[in-house]
Amino acid sequence: MKQILPEIRELVQHLNFLKICCTNSGFRHIQHYINGLIAVEKKTIKQISEASLEENHHSAIARILSEGRLKEDVLKERYLKKVAYYAKGQEVYLLIDDTLSKHEGDNIYGVQVHKSHTSEGYVKGHQFLTGLLCFGMYKMPLFPLLYTKETDSKIEMAKHMFLDTIKHVQIHTVLFDSWYADKSLIKMIKTKGSRVICQVKTNRCIKHLKKYVSLKKYSDQIHLTDKFWIDGTLYKAEKQTAKLKHVPLGALVFSEQYFEKNKVWSRHIHIFSTQKNDSIVEILRTYKQRWAIEVLHRDLKQNLGFDKAMIRSKKGIVRHTILCVLAYAILQMFMAQHNLNMTIGECIRFLREQNMNNFIQEIVEIEDKNKRMEVFEMRFIRKTAKV
Q1: Is the separation of the CB atoms in 58 and 386 below 8 Å?
Q2: Is the entire prediction scored with pTM above 0.90?
Q3: Does 25 or 216 have the greater pLDDT score?
Q4: Spatial contact of 154 and 180, defined as CB atoms under 8 Å apart
Q5: In a domain, 28, yes or no
Q6: In this structure, are residues 247 and 183 in contact, taking their beta carbons and an 8 Å threshold?
Q7: Whether residue 206 is found in the same domain as residue 268
């Protein structure tokens, strides 16, 4: 039996800020598409369309992604204002990273070969700069930015992402790995009043005895002895007030992590904070939060169809990723509103089962037999349209 897509009513209220960004019919199609990204097993445009109970949604779903009227700039601004409302009075942490989405088609916009950070090889597809705002119970993703050979560098894109965000949301700390530990990005964030905590590569230079030396050579001379238990993980660490080349004075933590399974210590990891008075525990504990953006990437791909849509146009690709992010965001809002401690996958299964039960119950409770059979046939036996 084909999958039927009921409206997930619990989530509709969180999408009302979208209305001003598109037409009334466009809003219904977007709402339906986000429902599909959450509730349909195979999250392709075709499968979402065929699960629809309304015939006029079928061709419109593909059209709203590639051609329909949608003011992305207005949508981003309204979304950030909504996030700012939830974040009021809380310390907000911005996590910056990137992720790859595999695509083999030569006629798809922006497909190129990218170096994979998680493996030794290369991946053909799209690369997106991603951001995640963490505060309280909320983890609210920013709209992804598509990186191609025609765009600015990822460092420049990260600057734009940060500057666009602080127009609406006050950011306490920005976290990123060593790939983004660029001197110009660190300086810019610091001048805006936010703290940076990031990993740095060993090819950097550190000031020692009034001259700059290789961080690797300097680090190799340090023997770590002090141990710290931080949230269930054992570290050996040492902190120094450090001056990295072209970077303002800050705190540098030299650390090793113990892996209980293999009974081994990691190599030296270097974590830098622009606040020189931060403690070792504060720096290491805060940097561990960066793992949340890896979870975001996994959830977007495994649970919300981030890399499933085969769309050729730039507009369609960008809109699809924006709607995936909005699906993730409204699930976060729903869980926070109901004080639910779930993963995104668990939340999706919960909503899917609950709404399908309600959907079937509505049919069963129709008293007139003929009317009940008419509704059943319309929804479960109807021929589906093709996208």
Answers
A1: yes
A2: no
A3: 216
A4: yes
A5: yes
A6: yes
A7: yes
